[in-house]
C-alpha cells in the first residue's frame, strides 16, 4: 500500500466518523426536544415540548390554541383530563421552566404513562395528579388557567367539577373548555347525540359564577370557550 492510498483510507475514515458524530448529535437534539419535527413555523413558545407530531395536530390546531390562550412565562395551569399528555407538553412549553402544569386525570394508567414520559425527557414543570371527578386534588387559589380539552362532556357531575375549578383558580384565573360541537357532525369526535351543546356549557358555567369572555372559532369540530372567574372580563374583545 502506498502512502497516498494510506492517507485516502484515513481521510475516508475520519469523514465517516464526523458524519456519525453529526448524526448522533441530531438524534440527541431530537430526543431532548431541541429540534421539533413538523412545527418549524410555530413561534418559540407555541411548541410541543415532547418531540411528537401526530395527524391530530392538523384538526386540533394546538399552535393556534396556545397562541389564543396567551399564557405568560411563570403561569400555573391545570390540564384537567390530561390523558397521556397530548396537550400537556404544549402547555409546559408555553409557561416555561418557571411555570407549572398540573396534569390531572382519573386514570391510573394515564398518570403512569405521563410519569414515564416526563422522566424520560426529562421535564421539570409538569406534575401528574391522580384525581377524581369530585376532587381535583389541586391547591386552592393556585391556577392562572384551568384547561379542559374533550373532557367536560364526559364528566358525570359537571356542577361539582366547575365548583372545584372555581376553588382552584386565582381571583383573575380563567377557565377554558374545548369540546365537541353538537351543531357539527362527522369525524373526528363522537356522534352528534353524544356531544354537549355550547349553550348548555355556557349556562352551567355562568350558574357557577363564571362569565364567558371569549368564544374562539378556529376549530373545525369543536367549540373553544374562555371564561373569567367571578365575572371579570379580560382586556380582550368578546368574539
Structural notes for this entry:
The structure is a single chain. The chain is of the alpha/beta class and 239 residues long. The chain has 2 domains: 1-32; 56-229, Vaccinia Virus protein VP39 (Rossmann fold, 3-Layer(aba) Sandwich). The protein has helices at residues 3-32, 56-60, 62-69, 88-95, 108-120, 158-168, 198-208; strands at 76-80, 100-105, 126-130, 143-149, 169-180, 210-216, 222-229. Strands 3-2-1-4-5-7-6 form a 7-stranded mixed beta sheet, sandwiched between helices. β1 (76-80), α4 and β2 form a beta-alpha-beta unit. The chain starts with a helix and ends in a 10-residue tail after the last strand.
Sheet with most strands: strand arrangement: 3-2-1-4-5-7-6
CATH topology of the largest domain: Rossmann fold
Shape: globular
Taking the sheet with the most strands, its summary is: 7 strands, mixed
Report how far the terminal alpha carbons are from each other.
78 Å
Strand content: 15-25%
A few lines on this structure:
The chain is 36% helix and 21% strand. It has helices at 3-32, 56-60, 62-69, 88-95, 108-120, 158-168, 198-208; strands spanning 76-80, 100-105, 126-130, 143-149, 169-180, 210-216, 222-229.
Defining traits:
disordered C terminus; 7 strands; globular; 7-stranded mixed β-sheet; 239 residues; alpha/beta; Rossmann fold
